[in-house]
Automatic annotation (TrEMBL):
Catalyzed reaction equations: D-ribose + ATP = D-ribose 5-phosphate + ADP + H(+)
Active site per the UniProt annotation: 244 (proton acceptor)
PROSITE patterns found in the cross-reference section: PFKB_KINASES_2
Cofactor note: Requires a divalent cation, most likely magnesium in vivo, as an electrophilic catalyst to aid phosphoryl group transfer. It is the chelate of the metal and the nucleotide that is the actual substrate.
Residues in Carbohydrate kinase PfkB domain copies: 5-286
Protein name in UniProt: Ribokinase
The keyword ATP-binding is assigned to this record: yes
Recorded name of the encoding gene: rbsK
Source organism: Lysinimonas soli
Amino acid sequence: MTAAVIVVGSVNVDLVAAGGRMPRPGETVSMARFAEAQGGKGGNQASAAAALGARTYLVGAVGSDHWGAAARADLAARGVEVSGLATVDGATGVAIILVDDDGENSIAIVPGANSAVTPVVVASALDAIDEPQAIVVACLEVPLDAVEEAARVAARRGWGFVLNPAPAPLGALPASLLAAASVITPNETELESLGGVAALLAAGAGAVVVTRGGEGAELHRAGAAPQHIAPIPADVVDTTGAGDAFTAALAVGLAEGRALPDAVSWAAVAGAIATEGFGARGSLPTSAQVQARLRS
């Protein structure tokens, strides 16, 4: 049976300036090129899961503008089921992204329609999905109460729940949300905002997978020694969306029944390949590409 992944998250249009160096505060710099691309952590994660072959659903919202129509069309073309993607009056979310010559990025987000993702929207969309087994993935680019509702419905349906705590929360997340997570996938900045690995495990999280970019990843579980997942060599062009590809691949691996350490290793390869193209969805790998890179 094909693995099922349900993403509850944001959809944005990415306005990307690349090539050169990041500006310092108060400084104007000239960058080499500009592109408009599809983005948003939810949209990226759903696109990555679909590319890996999972039956993928996206729950979120876009605006009534041309960007919203383009986002919906792009996701559908990638094989994402978008019946749970609402259209609301107003603007689609926007991300303004700078990418330097080393492929590192800096991102500012205007939520737009993502703010309209309410608990009612989430519950209605999830209740309409007929999947006996699935992994639900949620990020923090939509309102927190909507993420909490996604966790509640996942628990009620017997689905796994993966929390990607990005962008970094300004304060502590509800203990009930942390306890509902089968896996939490913070990067180093997000981990610091959440109080560290020990605090997350003490709150009841099933596991914590810390992504560390070029240094690989770490898997932490209560009562077990941490496991380091070595970085995967990649010809880095743009790191935008690499964390989303990692989280999506982890969810797909779990939905396929992989053991957690194997799913993390598989996700690390998918995240590395995702850095080799421009934009958040410029190099999303297929399952065959991940397997080939693992063998090499």
